[in-house]
Amino acid sequence: MNQKDNSSIFTPILIGGSLILLISFAIRSTFGLFQIPIAEQFMWARSEFSLAIAIQNLAWGIGTPIFSAFAEKFGDRKAITVGLLLYAIGIFISSTASSPEAHQFLNVIIGFGIAGSGFGPILAVVGRAASPEKRSLALGITTAAGSGGQVIGPPFAAILLSIMPWSSVFVVFALISLLTIVL
Q1: Helices and strands (H and E) in the chain: how many
Q2: Of 161, 166, 182, which Cα lies nearest the Cα of 84?
Q3: What's the pTM value of the predicted model, to 2 decimals?
Q4: How far apart are CA 78 and CA 164, in angstroms?
């Protein structure tokens, strides 16, 4: 006899994972908004900051399998915590960086932070925690939360940039990343 799974899809793991992705990708999607204020403050060519973002994306790609291996050896919670810490540290230190090279180096740290707090480790945790009957739905909800973050992040950053300098917004984002660890 086939029993129907009546448990709720919205488990603490699904909710926590979805919120981590929402926040992580909300912040990640905002970096383009900082290009002009940073370039204008330091009189850089815009290509300098663009290179930093490209480096961030490369570090994210390189970091993803590294964080997967780390999670296998030390556990998902530790991998995600390290990812969020790197994310927060990279963003926080970037708030004081004044050279293109510093921003480019710090975006390596930020990219690794995104890898540790992004789709790879979060979807692995959510997928393992969901029942086979609800796994696809749980992964879809979690993925949608990450996509939702990409929608809400830029307007939130634009509001912050209208009331404070870019460096202060970076500090706010670093604090939000740190607070995300409780999830």
Answers
A1: 8, 0
A2: 182
A3: 0.91
A4: 33
What pLDDT was estimated at residue 8? 83
Percentage of the residues of the chain whose pLDDT score is greater than 90? 90
Q: What is the 3-state secondary structure (H, E, C) of 15-45?
A: HHHHHHHHHHHHHHCCHHHHHHHHHHHHCCC
Q: How far is CA 95 from CA 92, 112, 149, 174, in A?
A: 5, 18, 22, 9
Residue 62 near residue 78 (C-beta atoms within 8 A)? no
| Lookup: tokens for 150 | 């990409």
Task: Write out the two tokens for 160.
Answer: 């912050």
Q: What share of the chain is helix, strand, coil (3-state, %, to 5)?
A: 80, 0, 20
